[in-house]
Batch of 3 targets.
Target 1
Amino acid sequence: MTCLPKTAPAKKLGLVIDLDICVGCHACAVNCKEWNTGGKMAPLSDLDPYGSKPNGVWFNRIHTFETMNDVGVSRTVHFPKSCLHCDDAPCVTVCPTGASYKREEDGIVLVNDDICIGCKLCSWACPYGAREYDEAEGVMKKCTLCVDKIYNENLPEQSRVPACVSTCPAGARSFGDLNDPNSEVSKLSAARGGVALMPEQGTKPVNRYLLPRPKKTGQGVNAPRMLTHEDTSDDGAGMLARWVDKILTA
Amino acid sequence: ERMGINPFETVKETVALSPEVSDEVKTSTCYMCACRCGIKVHLKDGNIRYIEGNPDHPVNKGVLCAKGSSGIMHQNAPGKLTKPLLRVGERGSGEFKEIEWDEAMALAEKWLGDTRAKDPGKLAFFTGRDQSQSLTGWWASAYGTHNFAAHGGFCSVNMAAAGLYTIGGAFWEFGDPDFDRTKYFMMLGVADDHDSNPIKIGLGKLKTRGDAKFVVVNPSRNGYNAIADEWLGIRPGTDGLFIFAIIHELLRADKIDFPSLARYSNAPWLVIQNPGEADDGLFLRDKKGFPLIWDVKKKKAVSGYDKDISPAFAGERKIKGKTVVPSFELLARRYMDPQYSPDAVAERTGLTADTIRRIAAELAHAAFEEEVIIDQPWTDAWGRKHDKMIGRPVAIHAMRGISAHTNGFHTCRAIHMLQVLLGSIDTPGGWRYKPPFPKPIPPAPKPTPPHYKPNTPLGGGSNGFPTSPDDLIVDDNGQPLRIDKAFSWEHPISLHGMMHMVLRNAATKDPHEIDVLFMFMANMAWNSTMNIGETLGFFTAKNDDGSYKIPKIIYSDAFYSETVPYCDLILPDTTYLERYDCLSVLDRPFSAAHGVADGIRQPVVKPDRDVRTFQTVLLELGARLGLPGMVNDDGSAKFPGGYPDYLVNHERRPGVGPLAGWRGKNGDKSGIGEVNPNQLEKYIENGCFWSEEMPMEHQFFKHANQGYLNYSKKMGWIGEASPVVFQLYNEDLQKFRLAAQGHGERQPPEEHRERVDTYFDPLPIWYMPFEEAEIDTDEYPIHALSQRPMHMYHSWGSQNAWLRQITNANKLHIHTEMAASLDIIDDDWVWIESRHGRVKGQVKLITGVNKNTVWTWNAIGKRKGAWGLKHDAPENTKSFLLNHIISDVLAEGQKGIQYSNSDPITGQGSWYDLRVKIVKCTKAEWGETEPMYEAFKGGPVSDLDVLQYGKDMKGEDTGGKADLREYIGQRWANAANIDGIADGHGNIKKGDKT
Amino acid sequence: MHPAKSVIFFTTATGAGYGLFIWLAILSFMGVLPASPLFGLIALGVSFALIIGGLLSSTLHLGRPERAFRALSQWRSSWLSREGVMAILTFIPMGIFAISWVFTSKNTGGVALIGLLGAFMAYITVFTTSMIYASLKTIPAWHNGWTKLAYLILCIMSGAVLTMALTLLMGSLTGNEKFSHAGFHLTMPTAIFLALGLIVKLLYWRHIHNSKPVSTAESATGLGEFGKVSFAGSPHSQDNYLLKEMGFKIARKHARKMRIIAAILGFILPLILIAVAIHHLHGMGRTIAILIAATSCAIGLVFERWLFFAEAKHVVTLYYGESEV
Ligand SMILES: Nc1nc2c(c(=O)[nH]1)N[C@H]1C(S)=C(S)[C@@H](COP(=O)(O)OP(=O)(O)OC[C@H]3O[C@@H](n4cnc5c(=O)[nH]c(N)nc54)[C@H](O)[C@@H]3O)O[C@H]1N2
Ligand SMILES: Nc1nc2c(c(=O)[nH]1)N[C@H]1C(S)=C(S)[C@@H](COP(=O)(O)OP(=O)(O)OC[C@H]3O[C@@H](n4cnc5c(=O)[nH]c(N)nc54)[C@H](O)[C@@H]3O)O[C@H]1N2
Ligand code: SF4
Ligand code: SF4
Ligand code: SF4
Ligand code: SF4
Ligand code: SF4
Ligand SMILES: [Mo]
């Protein structure tokens, strides 16, 4: 259904990504590729895999940014990016075929690659670069939120999670229903003031990003700024004298 | 599904929610790096559908990194070797003929047999990325060569040596920060490290807990360093000064854990002050040989090992006619000296004095004001009961940023000294040993000298822990006897050998010539060697008669690496998914601080090539050569079943084998026990690992925890259940120094005296890295480093169709200010010039790097014709290795000796001493990297244009829809801070039954 | 945005084709066009060729052309779908008009009315095309009124120039003054639309140059509160689909050159040529001048369309080093 669901989806499944602990290891990106290249969107084709311009279909990619404020304090932030499963998904409404659609039951945005004509318009409409055209297959592909994993009865419970989430070594990724204010992901996002990317684009993303916490420099810890020297003599004779008489039993 | 052709119909997709994933799931242990995480491999018709982390595994608890997640493409790589190869062209040409295994084994047997019949020492056996050193070392010793080592010499031996000679354990992956409890975590010089996933899990947990501070000391700010609370962008090679300044502050402010020092360290031990004499600087000992301390209550000298002592920490006394002072006084005098004040070191480290003072204050505050207490009674090694475990919650981890410098050994000792002075070692919230550590300082085994007897075993291990000049492997003139010159006066405590010197020494026949060089799993002709250009020359160097100076080279690799073409006989190995393998406590344990663990790999896919597991091949060669332990009395092979057979049935000592789990006839024993024929089955049932959690009362203070020490003895890890006393002042080092000062039987040859005297200081020192000291720093003002990308393992990633998409061209990262001064912008081409040569690459401007430092990703650059890549791959044309411009030797000194570019104590290769200048390329020079070597002939070159792995793997929908489970990353830590989030792990809440 | 030949040809050709038809219908309705089957064949032939050729080239750039028919289903929400539907529907009146002209030599009265209906629908089709681009928020250079206006005016403009050329050519070839006179009817409109076209493009260019950025690297990453955001590491070493499709960069200097070329060839030169031709030239000379004007206009519009894509920045580039779009 390429019009967005008339009644807002009952659930809004999505990811919450914690930029405060993401170390930029690319595990989520590779594990995503690994799961999905044999999954609903199979295959995630790779062009020129061993040549000069290797490039393939990935549903998740890790960028690195630096920030610099006006007093010259800079940070490095690793930044994973995948489909945000927007509420008002322009990639859906522009689609002429209905191949691009949003599921009514859980809000997951999918591509039906059996009818996609590969016009690429959805990739023009997506502000986040979350749509990946498979040049070898001539169809558009994208993050499925691992729809073929999270509900999959052929997998043990612990594996019923998006691949990128369960594999993240830092534990920077969480998954759940962001429609339900009482869900754990909603609480997590609320507690950390999770943000949406490019709100001005009006896409109403479901995924949330938790911004890096304020850095604890000296101020952060309630320690003194410096230790008071018990001995200011040049050679530390004072301290040594004190230690000579030091009596303790071990 | 139904799909009409009515153009106006909206086709609705019915998504398969429960597709069949696999027809079989096998567990094993990942080997996309040395971290050894547990994996679950989903198989479909024998092909790999999906590899995920094993949630039950102690190392990774279900997570899997980028490398591990790309195992499919490792298995799928076009660069895999397919058959044994025999060189037909010149070395380096790449011209081989494929031969059968029978011929290959016969050849290897003959080459090795002839050499052994002459002089086993003429075999040099060196192994690289290796996790079966307990096998290879044992094999070498049975063969009879003293010329054996793994690659630790160029890897991180400084960390191992400094740790084992100071606290009886080491960083590397042999200890763990207590991520659950620490209040202050300081990480120095770490990129991804061996404990790859555990560190990431730990950092995530630590930061999510929110009540700890995470400080990094690193010239670069990416990866782990990016998420730190505070980044100290130190100037490379100066960490020692930084640590000394902190210690200076702690001493001056009397923020020292004296009770801990008294109990657990040699700080009170009395050191003889007798300048110029043979006993100067040695400990004063009683008749039994116990070191003495001065008991200020008893007013007499008693053994430092006695119970209930009141030791003096300072004060010169005359005892038994000797002038003595507690070693602590020597320590205190040295580091309280103004030369180590924050102000004195600030400029050289590139950190402000205020910052250093503040860090010292924060460390002291965390250690002494934020004690972590576990209500758990325990008993110390002297039988004293303690009603709780008091922690000094300062944890430290350090790795190659510290060790890969010529001053790395002392710097690492300095870090351990800091830990000990704060009393944080193996306390709650501190840095914790992983069993089987701690071990005696240092562990007992000694290196075994050559015997030159035909067909005779060495009679000991080739590597060990020298404690005095007597343990060196040198001749009567003090000249080296090992091909790598390890354990010689040049690098006396080179515990892990010096693989990086083998090719030069063998080709120059210095100290002696060899017949056969046997290598395993090390890319010595490319990214794991310094000075690539000359090293290739050593491979191909010839005598006047046209024969090669290194007569025969046998090499086992699994892929067509740059080293393959330089060897004569290639024994193609299996991949980690095709073989049995062993992660043994005898080798590199992957235990956790709370319990020991080991594991295996099992074959999950069948090789589609004519390859054999190297360890099995090695055992068969051993049998053919009739090596003791590898043949039965009747001469038949002892392990006809190959490596798995050995894993189960080999006993190093009675009851002690490669695997510690499920020993004993019916598998009910652990550690020590008879052989259990079903041991491997047990491991496989359990997910290919074994682990044994220790009771809480044994989990801390292991160095002096009676219960733990008894357990350690029972497991056969230590000989005696006596406490491990931290050696801040190291007497063993002093013994070498005394020899250099002219005392004792064995003294260094004249040319080495001064060097040994200078660097064998019993207390940590700092000196300028050798290259920096030798060059004109105005000409080469910049430090150049390499770092491991988290998604690549050395050379392996470039053949991986997925990983190489992430990085197939490495850039030189430089600070925007430096770039501005050089008028350079993103993607400009520059020459990176060292005193040794120059290499060309493109730049990337950033701000997260020390302003005098540039860095690039390690091991991305490749040579045309290797790894199955097309010749125009960016790895071949745009990527570069700093290895080309790192010299393996130092400038020849006045004494006419040319030392290895390595740490003077341990022989650790000093990759990060490199100094360079950056020169902008002319436009004409843009486009391709240099140096550019000619392509190998005959190597595999992939002609694949499109890769569509998994196209045919979509599973049939079996119907059904499981209930959703929410997943919360770092659930445990988040639950503690946010109400509405339940405790548990991932998508499993406490109490859920699964 | 990557200026793909297929799309450039599609938009320019269909625009001119529809424009041509619209003028033919109007002139017929005015009764000033002789219903010569030959001319009908040529003129409508050119119009249909341009339209069909354009539509074909647009389907050829699809990954799965054989599935193109599915693009009709989502007219409720998708402008691309609407364009497809309109294009097809428009062929009905256009077809009837063409058939009766060419085969029954009739192009006035009821037929002309059908022609006008076709013209009207054709114009709506062009509007749907413009909306495909104008509806994309992600590309601020397209997401504005000028985009629609430009498409609508350039369609009429190029159609007019083309109609003039064809009628005058017919006139001088057949010596039938009626054709030339029909053409002269268009002199003024053509001149006006050329001028309008130029003005609209100039205003469009000023608009995209002056308009404030819609999104920034700060809003794209949410990291604004930490300061200025810069790109420190790419997820992949080589260009991926996104960068090949949307990462197209054009240097300011180069763009300015192209704009001048587009303005001169597309608008100014044709305007001058037409003026000169009408006032100072006669017979074949005049016709040739107009033909040159038409050709120049066509080439100019290709440049204009190339720029339309090349100058359009997509917000996704904010994740790859752009600081604002
Ligand atoms: N510039 C620079 N150079 C460095 C470093 C640095 O920091 N900077 N780091 C140094 C360090 S610490 C190290 S440890 C070395 C690492 O460098 P190496 O020890 O050379 O490690 P790799 O290159 O990863 O792999 C060595 C060989 O193992 C082969 N191999 C892979 N899997 C298998 C297998 O299953 N069986 C067999 N038989 N072979 C296999 C690969 O094909 C490769 O040829 O690099 C060193 N080089
Ligand atoms: N992903 C991945 N993981 C690996 C490997 C791999 O190839 N890839 N290799 C494995 C191997 S063999 C090893 S030895 C380990 C090495 O583990 P690491 O030591 O983590 O690896 P390096 O890449 O050597 O990182 C050295 C770090 O020290 C910093 N540094 C350099 N000089 C200095 C200095 O003077 N002072 C300080 N404070 N910092 C400095 C560098 O910026 C860099 O961040 O990693 C292991 N794990
Ligand atoms: S796996 Fe986790 S830590 Fe690694 S890049 Fe992805 S989100 Fe960041
Ligand atoms: S992120 Fe892009 S692809 Fe995903 S829903 Fe939003 S617009 Fe569509
Ligand atoms: S590419 Fe496929 S999914 Fe995207 S808009 Fe076109 S038809 Fe729809
Ligand atoms: S949810 Fe699944 S498909 Fe989406 S990025 Fe994560 S792993 Fe990839
Ligand atoms: S860290 Fe990654 S590569 Fe290394 S063993 Fe674990 S999963 Fe495998
Ligand atoms: Mo290493």
Target 2
Amino acid sequence: MSTVSVSSVRKNFGRVEAVKDVSFEVFPGEIFGLLGPNGAGKTTTIRMMLDIFEPDAGHIAVFDGRIDEAKKQRIGYMPEERGLYKDLQLEQTLVFLGALKGLEENEAKSRLEKWLKRLDLFDHRQKKIQELSKGMQQKAQLIATLLHEPDLIVVDEPFSGLDPVNTRLVKDIIEEQRQAGKTIIMSTHQMYQVEALCNRIVLINNGRTVLYGEVSQIKRDFSGNAIVLEGKGDFANIPGVLEARTQNGAWHLALNGGVNPQDVFRHLAQQEQLVIERFEIAEPSLDDIFVSVVQSGKAAEEAQHA
Amino acid sequence: MRNYWLLARHEYRKLVGKRSFLVGTLGFPLILMVVMAASIFISIRGDQTRPMGVVDHAGVINTAVAPQADGGNELLPLRPFPNETEARQALTDQEIQVFFVIPADYRRSLQIDAYYWQDTPGDSVFSDFNEYLRINLAQDFPANIRPRLIDGPDLIVRAADGSREFNGRNVFSFFIPFIAAFFFIFVVMSSSGYLLQVVTDEKENRTVEIMMTTVSPGQLIGGKALGLLAVSLTQVLIWVFTGIVAIVIGAAFIDVLRFISVPWSLLLVVVLFFIPAYAFIAGIMTAIGSATTELTQAQQIAGILNLLFLLPFFFAALFFANPNSPILLFLTFFPTSSFVTVLMRWGMSTVPLWQVALSWLILVSSALLSVWVAARIFHTGMLRYGQSLSLKEALTAVRTRS
């Protein structure tokens, strides 16, 4: 049984259609990636999921039904627009938030001590939030999200503001939560983190679900759409190529939908000024897929308006 | 219920622990203590044993006719002198602390001169001489009239239906409704001012989204409002307690303080109006805090609205001159001014029951509407980081559920 089920939801703010048609399901023990470009409708979808907004149409079920006060205590949410009470002490703030999530104060304090030690914040517990660095505040937010041991964890850009060491630490913690059977929904623009952590994803663009499924399957589905090239010459501006970029001396080409890599190879072979040393049909990164889908959507939209 | 308590306690501790609260709360009692001490000092200062002198050219004073000592306080002896020269010598020799000269035409002019050196005698000295003068002037009248003349009139004004009574000696009771109005409007406005601050803080701190997925908007605002109300009540209770202590101590030295009594009917009005008045203004402040982006902007709007709550004070003179005037009648029913207007009219007049009931019903309805509108604007406005809601957007938010 799914922990979260979002089915054909729609939400308008006045004349603005923030979410047009989004559907997905999230199951216990998985890390689910909620992806999309800025303004795609991710945050509105999360807010509808958590009962901050009511959808205009569609259906949302959390823990097999409508969200209520008791279910709220089983959810840990780290929003993108986040902060803590700046003029309060770290420990006082986190105990207060834990108590609001149903913990007794003593229990909250006891759990908090472990988290503070693990995230290297124990010596700063008496400091006011505003005296902490951005990275420390970020870790404090994570503690506020996890302190009450929620069954559903929703994290929006959990790695922003973290150095590589702390990014690794947060990744480990998220993975631990998954292993403990928790349901995790992660929204981020860091595609390599999604590839590393997520089992399944949904990609929202212009308020609609445009990709949904297992990461490995999606990558297989897009495998004909990416090419890795090495050689001499400029491989930009090749017909049928959506995006071309260089990385470590190799060209990574994302192809338009419906374009055959063989056609691209034939075209390149006919160009005398280009020397091909390596031509490989690559499994695309999620980053490539993201760009490909979003730009295709943009092109289709422009064509529709034209 | 637990969340209301947690939120209320959190806000209470946060504010009460601040230095500004301690300074603001303890500052008033300190000032009151200084004022009271100064009043008592003025009242009792000076020499309490050295006699007064009198040069009586009008033949008014017979020192054998001395007033009775009042409440264990011994009156200063009054020593007669045949002329100013001898009296001045006695003053120079410090045998007396002051002498009064009653001119020959006193019964027509009613003027008396007092002479003393650098140190002004205390109020009790003049009060004692006044006692001597009154009792001596009354000697010419029949014995049955004399006590009335000495004590003065004891005027009691009663409402025709017997519901209210005003004792002329009890001057302070006359002002109690005004003082109560001031205190309670202070509580309502300071609590709602705090609420405005915490709502904008919640928005500026970006904590609102976490809170909204933890508690309901009703719990969030309700809990905070209760905590802040408790903060203001703590402040006022400390002040009222200090005031009572000051009155009890002061009453031993200052006559007028002895006649203060508790106006129970006024307390009933306060209890009836206080909660809806607070809910009404709290709703308005929540809506303003939710619709704006920062505290200064919110305070500017709230400052203008606050004037509507202070309207009765602009018409303070009218409460004395004509407490049932059409303007005050309008303010009685207008929700922003009804609480204070009813309180102040209560002190000056008898407010018909139907007016109190109608005023209360309008206030309660306005409070419910205010809270409902605030909840809608809060839901939409609080998630608009860095953007204010326009009036049109606010109206749209009120019409539609987020």
Target 3
Amino acid sequence: MTPLLQVENIAKFYGARIGCTDVSFDLYPGEVMGIVGESGSGKSTLLNTLAGHLTPDRGAVRFDTRADGLRDTVTMSEPERRMLSRTDWAFVHQHARDGLRMNVSAGGNVGERLMAVGTRHYGDIRASATDWLGRVEINEDRIDDRPSAFSGGMQQRLQIARNLVTGPRLVFMDEPTGGLDVSVQARLLDLLRGLVREMGLSAIIVTHDLAVVRLLADRLMVMKDGHVVETGLTDQVLDDPQHGYTQLLVSSVLQV
Amino acid sequence: MIRVENVSKSFTLHNQGAAVIPVMRGGELTVARGECVALTGASGAGKSTLMRMIYGNYLTASGRIMVGDLDVAQAAPREILELRRHVLGYVSQFLRVVPRVATLDVVAEPLRAVGSSEGEARARAGELLAQLNIPERLWQLSPTTFSGGEQQRVNIARGFAHPYPVLLLDEPTASLDATNRATVLALIEEAKARGTAILGIFHDEAARDQICNREVDVTRFTPGLAA
Amino acid sequence: MNPAMTQSDQDRHEDRGMNDYNFAYLDEQTKRMIRRAILKGLAIPGYQVPFASREMPMPYGWGTGGVQVSAAVLTPEDTFKVIDQGADDTTNAVSIRRFFQKTAGVAVTEATAEASVIQTRHRIPEAALSEDQVLVYQVPIPEPLRFLEPSEVETRKMHELEEYGLMHVKLYEDIAQHGAIATAYAYPVKVEGRYVMDPSPIPKFDNPKLEMAAIQLFGAGREQRIYALPPYTQVVSLDFEDHPFEASKADHPCGLCGAEDSYLDELIVDDAGGRLFMCSDTDYCAARQTAGHRGADAAPVVEGMA
């Protein structure tokens, strides 16, 4: 089976400092990969490099495009990459305001990607937006409200709806539950699990929270100082950690 | 269906002076279709460890673990995920609960994972929950607030939702009263009759004697304890 | 003596007593730069060409872009008309007309049909223009996406990559809030199926006229952009399939000339709130009245006065 994403030897440096290096993995349709590490581990650099927000200094990120098969997104032209990020890819930011237009209504936010790929029927756009707001458990009577009037959890769910409306195949998530209250986190995680399964999404999720990763990710990469120190099935890495740093991380988690 | 050949395992605790703890050596066993094999041995001898190695939850240092045609010890994560979805089921001792998901959906999930519709999956889940005497009024609640025994029964229902060809059961009758224990044993018998290969850990000797064809004592594989 | 001018040009220049100004105020190098920008704009219809806008003797916001474009295209043989919201006689229109009379010595007119170059603020003349005419628009904000995307870097990318979803978001928001696309002027258009353009703050009623036989040039002085539409360019107003564009106007005929098809200004005529609707295009209205058309509010014709 062709991998959906084939990452080969990715490295990103900031001068002499290592952002991330020697990262390689394959991601298959329907798989969720978690990337954990503490601050400064390079996980966000890696995510942003994979998603095309940063240009790597080395390596390839090959995506299985619908039209042309595996294409290296690093060497793709910018218009193609931007089109990809509006259709097949999605990026959920840690802070909803980085991923939403705060001065546009919820419906407009969700509809934007549709309009960006050519949908020109107001009624259809509104129906899609209403449907998606329902799927992320936002009451449809909020469709004309601005996200500035939403709580943090609602903003995050709106961000998810906005990203998923064009049926992407790969979702990048940067600390999707960071900064949210615990009960709100739980609800969001449920939602993400459900959507990943229903839509057959693949996802790459960066988080420092091992509980989130256990819940959402099938596979796990542990990063420290820009390197991947361990990788494998999530439950295996967390239950039978091999690397000293992973063992430290796992043993540091507080039990409730 | 299960063939464990000469497996070994040790734990290296890097943060405790790199202490190396060998826990298994020369592990061997087979389980055929329709067989139920019990793992026996003292607490800490490695029963759960071996079971987790077969499931891919623990890494195997050397040897082969064949489940069907796949060597779990060498397989890629993707292959193990696929195996766990369709072929290999595991009922652990504890129910790890996703917050806020209804019991019915917890049990239905393995069927959803292999493509069943929501309706079908929930229907089957309902049947199993009823069999295991979980009252319907609890089905929409999350199992987080249930008693240990109730959680265990939800765990079992979940384990039997999809008819896996291979099943690993870790203490399936612990914390159950006589009625529910009988029900669980009946479920295991049904699975055996279907041709399921079952490997189980049963502290309950009566249950073990009732449904298991043979026993494997893991003490033989424990370094330092082997006779 | 300006070495760029021929002897006969120079004679004419001095005859008119304009020793202090180059023809049409701007120096020849500046006019060349602006003409290059205009040519580029004509070659890429709807694309905003940056140009080095000069300090003009009127402040920003008073038509410096339009004035620079007119200055670059005027020749001594041209006949020049200036309208401001359709009228030839507002302060702005009069000032700009006088400016070019003084610095270029060109003939001026109020009759649309007689002008070869027409500079306009916020309206397109009612009378259809011909292939021999040039229409110069004054543009305040050339960037149609500006209100939704404040970053210039980002809007340039959007034009470059034809990423115009955001433009439709604005229209969507209008319909969601007001039930209809509320944009009444500066209504965005798509040019030749490629660039989205702001046609300057003309009423949307004028949008259909943007497909015309004349050359259309757009100048934004403060924002330093020029764009252009060659004759017969395809210009489509943005809309939704189920909310199509409508070039709407008030439901009244002109009170003075009775025209049903022209854009109207509404005047409050007395303290009781009485109102009069009249053509915003003064030349169009006057020409119709001269031809005998009268509206309900026209002054009665007095025998002997023609």
